[in-house]
Recover the amino acids of this structure.
């Protein structure tokens, strides 16, 4: 977007920033005076916040009304380029950006005129001209210095205009996708036109293609065809507009294109990297240039940014220019050493490839990490009544920051007056220091079948790194289904109790579409061995929510006067939250009579899981029944689970060094062994 601002009635009227060939010494701007008379003795020209003095070369320092003047980068060269020019001419020294920048006319006291031009509006060799409140590409190559802008005459043309954008000379091995420039000559700035058209093009009768272009507004050059020459030589490129949603000239336009094979041209291409400084503040933009010693031949530069450990900070990109690049990163480390790296791939016969890569080191200053650990119990999931019963399980959400710590263990439980007897203890291991963890921890309350614990408030305790955090919870009632004695209905159990069955382990609450573990104990008090088949499933009414009711069926043999605990992985499928039945069936010695154990089980609402996913940056436990692992071989009162996600805030050098100690010891032992061998020799 071009943004002019006029203080006095003197203005920039025409800008030649991309002349044909080399830009050096051939750039100029034209100024126009609509003021009665203005003295330009103290005229200054500012581009990209750099102020340049001007020196009068020819003409009058007093600029009259309705007259033009030129400020040239090199006045002597300007008169060679435009020998017929005889109006006011100022000499200066500047370099205009081909992509666009801020220009200002100034005098000793204030700014007279400001404009920010857009370099993409024109092609090489044409000027950017101001007319009737807007800027457009000049009709004539070379512009019209000292005259009315040629855009005035071109304004009478309507519809679409097609021109060939591809340069006269291109290179073998390169792919070109900007073949044509299609302009909407009726475009008005600030109005969106949405023109659709079909472009046809032909390359020396070897390739012909039609391209649909939609929503054309002012002009388009990108994706107007594709040309990737496979051999050097001369080609003819022709293009035409087949149809469009506006009236247009459909005549064909053609141009001779020369393809040069640069791979046979000897060269010695080297690459470097330039940065403005070495040390940057956190979140500051890092600006750099990929430098190359010879830009006259085509090349591709691959560049990226790493840290000292080879981790990619800025992904790899390819570029075919040396324009300034930049990136911004925010770190939590106290300091971060980064390396810009690049490789150049010249499309010429490079005789020395040892200088085709470069590196540049710089430092980003961060903030010191917090060394003190902290624990915060953020939420207790107990349902809508904010209560929980003995024998039930519930979850707590805990945010833990592990600072400069060597301890790894986190414990959570429910207690009464300092006694860890109200619930099982859940254990979590957190290994990385300077890391923030967000955990959802399950807690299992004891059954309280003997009414040992009264209904009242108890304390939830989370302890880690010599820190203890507490929060109260109201516990009322108990799950009576856990207190009933379960025996089989078979004649074996009812008459002589030689065979006893019991459900010794099961969860009270499970998540939908999950698997969970139950444990069934069979006691064989008989004087002989028996064979049993056993299986389990979840049901409601006549429907099984575990699929095939016997999907987890197992066969076991229990010797005489022995017992066995059989684990069964049970699943629940397509079940809405609510209360269901868990059925365990046992058949002894292929008898027709099946023994049954039935328990109530709850399918929990996944609201707490959804809340974690929606509101937390990290979720360590997305499905409690799947991630909970019971340690059934040692401490039966401790539940273990490992966190699976974490956010590393900072990994200090001491910690990194500790992780390298084993490798260092191995290296020393290997060196010592080599020394002994050499010594014996």
């Amino acid at each position: 977007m071009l943004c002019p601002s006029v203080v006095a009635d003197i203005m920039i009227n025409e800008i030649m920033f991309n002349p044909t060939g080399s830009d050096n010494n051939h750039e100029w701007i034209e100024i126009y005076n609509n003021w009665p008379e203005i003295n330009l003795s103290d005229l200054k020209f500012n581009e990209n916040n750099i102020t340049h003095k001007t020196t009068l070369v020819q003409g009058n320092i007093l600029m009259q009304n309705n007259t033009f003047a030129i400020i040239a980068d090199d006045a002597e060269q300007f008169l060679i380029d435009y020998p017929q020019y005889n109006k006011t001419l100022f000499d200066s020294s500047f370099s205009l950006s081909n992509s666009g920048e801020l220009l200002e006319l100034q005098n000793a006291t204030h700014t007279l005129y400001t404009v920010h031009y857009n370099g993409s509006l024109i092609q090489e060799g044409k000027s950017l001209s101001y007319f009737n409140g807007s800027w457009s590409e000049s009709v004539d190559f070379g512009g019209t210095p000292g005259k009315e802008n040629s855009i005035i005459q071109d304004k009478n043309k309507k519809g679409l205009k097609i021109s060939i954008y591809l340069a006269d000379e291109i290179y073998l091995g390169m792919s070109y996708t900007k073949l044509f420039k299609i302009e909407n000559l009726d475009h008005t700035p600030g109005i969106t036109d949405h023109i659709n058209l079909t472009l046809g093009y032909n390359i020396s009768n070897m390739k012909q293609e039609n391209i649909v272009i939609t929503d054309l507004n002012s002009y388009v050059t990108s994706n107007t065809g594709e040309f990737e020459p496979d051999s050097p030589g001369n080609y003819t490129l022709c293009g035409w507009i087949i149809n469009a949603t506006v009236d247009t000239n459909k005549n064909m336009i053609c141009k001779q294109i020369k393809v040069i094979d640069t791979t046979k041209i000897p060269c010695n291409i080297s690459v470097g990297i330039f940065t403005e400084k070495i040390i940057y503040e956190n979140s500051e933009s890092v600006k750099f240039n990929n430098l190359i010693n010879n830009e006259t031949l085509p090349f591709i530069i691959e560049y990226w940014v790493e840290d000292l450990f080879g981790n990619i900070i800025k992904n790899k990109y390819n570029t075919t220019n040396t324009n300034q690049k930049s990136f911004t990163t925010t770190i939590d480390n106290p300091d971060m050493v980064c390396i810009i790296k690049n490789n150049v791939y010249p499309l010429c016969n490079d005789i020395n490839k040892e200088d085709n890569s470069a590196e540049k080191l710089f430092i980003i200053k961060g903030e010191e990490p917090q060394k003190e650990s902290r624990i915060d119990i953020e939420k207790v999931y107990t349902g809508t009544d904010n209560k929980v019963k003995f024998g039930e399980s519930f979850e707590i959400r805990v945010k833990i920051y592990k600072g400069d710590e060597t301890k790894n263990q986190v414990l959570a439980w429910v207690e009464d007056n300092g006694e860890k007897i109200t619930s099982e203890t859940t254990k979590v291991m957190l290994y990385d220091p300077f890391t923030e963890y967000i955990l959802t921890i399950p807690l299992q309350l004891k059954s309280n079948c003997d009414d040992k614990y009264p209904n009242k408030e108890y304390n939830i305790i989370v302890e880690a790194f010599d820190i203890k955090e507490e929060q109260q919870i109201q516990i009322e009632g108990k799950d009576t289904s856990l207190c009933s004695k379960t025996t089989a209905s078979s004649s074996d159990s009812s008459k002589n109790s030689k065979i006893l069955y019991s459900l010794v382990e099961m969860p009270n609450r499970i998540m939908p579409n999950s698997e969970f573990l139950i444990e069934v104990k069979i006691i064989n008090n008989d004087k002989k061995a028996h064979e049993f088949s056993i299986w389990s499933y979840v049901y409601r009414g006549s429907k099984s929510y575990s699929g095939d009711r016997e999907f987890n069926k197992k066969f076991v043999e229990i010797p005489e006067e022995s017992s066995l605990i059989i684990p069964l992985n049970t699943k629940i499928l397509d079940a809405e939250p609510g209360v269901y039945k868990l059925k365990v069936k046992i058949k002894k010695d292929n008898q027709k009579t099946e023994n049954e154990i039935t328990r109530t089980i709850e399918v929990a609402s996944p609201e707490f899981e959804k809340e974690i996913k929606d509101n937390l940056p990290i979720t360590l436990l997305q499905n409690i029944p799947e991630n909970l692992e019971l340690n059934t071989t040692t401490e039966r009162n401790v539940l273990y689970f490992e966190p699976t996600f974490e956010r590393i805030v900072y990994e200090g050098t001491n910690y990194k060094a500790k992780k390298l100690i084993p490798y260092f010891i191995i290296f020393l032992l290997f060196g010592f062994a080599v020394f002994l061998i050499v010594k014996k020799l």
User: Anything to note?
Assistant: The mean pLDDT is 81. The CA atoms of residues 456 and 602 lie 24 Å apart. The helical segments are 75-81, 151-154, 491-496, 607-615, 624-627, 653-680. The chain has six helices and 52 strands.
